[in-house]
Design brief:
Strand content: 15-25%
Number of strands: 15
Pfam families: LacI (PF00356), Peripla_BP_3 (PF13377)
CATH class of the largest domain: Alpha Beta
GO molecular function: DNA-binding transcription factor activity; transcription cis-regulatory region binding
Structural class: alpha/beta
Helix content: 25-40%
Keywords: DNA-binding, Transcription, Transcription regulation
Strand order of the largest sheet: 1-5-4-6-7-8-14
Largest sheet: 7 strands, mixed
CATH superfamily of the largest domain: Response regulator
Protein name: LacI family transcriptional regulator
Number of domains: 3
Low-confidence stretches: 1-37
Length: about 375
Amino acid sequence: MTVCLAVPSVRLGFCLPQEGGHDDTEFRLSADTSRITRVGVREVAERAGVSIATVSRVLSNHPNVSRATHERVTAAVRELGYQPNALGQMLRRGATRIVGFSIGDISNPLFAQIALGAEATLAQHGYSLVLSNSHGEQERELTNLAMLENRRVDGLLLSVTTETDSQLLQQLARFDGPLVAIDRDIATPTASVSCVQSDHAVGMTAALEALHAQGHRRVALLAGLATLRPGRERISAANVTAKALGMKCEVLSGEFAGPDAGAIVKLLRRPKRPTALVAGNNQLIAAALDALREAGLSYPRDLSLVVCDDVPLLRFFQPTLATIRRDPYQMGTNAAQLVLERLVGPAAEARTVVLPTTFVPGDSVGPAPK
DNA sequence: ATGACAATGTTACCCACAAT
DNA sequence: ATTGTGGGTAACATTGTCAT
């Protein structure tokens, strides 16, 4: 599935106001009289009594245009309701001013926030964002990336479902444009990839330290795939911190989103169950809450609960949920900046931006049960 | 300051020719 | 006579360059 998130006018300066809000654009028959097309620079030039080159100069604010000519052309633009044709501009420039964003699961609020941040920043520079959703399937991801490449997107933001698949890496290596990986470790053989990463260790360490301070010594981490950076980093940080603090940390991993509620219930019904649970991504929050209900347990009385990544509804929870938080909107903003700095202006090298995670305490963490 | 023109990538269309 | 193939060309909208 592909969703076009926003298509701002490529040249915002000439979105002249439409009186009464309706579209005044005139239409004309093309030379072969079989098709109706929108008003183009040719019509504007005729109306203004200048050449199309002069119209182009006025539209792009070229300095060598007389004031009188400038006024005649802008008047013609206004009268005809002329809007620049993005297809023609793409053809001439050899650039589409579109950035593609390959996402595994468009329904995940985390990606929605990342996309919003990216779209806002890109729009400020006259670029649009096109989302492609792979449903977590590698095959579909390859097809989507090929489609984005065929549509000649200028750059790609990547939140892909694999970091190592050779077909994917080959496809990315062939791509002629800047690549920005969002919390993924992608090493293509030829293409240099910029990265926006979260420092998962900071938040995870703080969370385990808070649990340790409350007397917890047996912790379970519900984790997404360890083959992708977020899961891998969270597991690694949890293991390192638990070892340093003398805690036992059990990792329950599973498919793309993590272990299912059934596996979590099984863990919670053990005679010597963990006294604290960390839901290692936002999709695991529901699974963790479901499992707690199924096992007849409540937090913080029976066990403590920490969740990773914010979901808007969480703030209505009572007791409040302790959260390892990051700013996905900021991630999107940074990803867009990284792609833009290699599309606009002097050539820039690929680089990595690391954003923090923070542990926000909540009432879901209490003293470890005896 | 202005106009003419080439160039961009893709595709529909036309024509000539070959094969069936 | 019909169908298929391949080559050539025009059309599309815009803009950079060069000439005047």
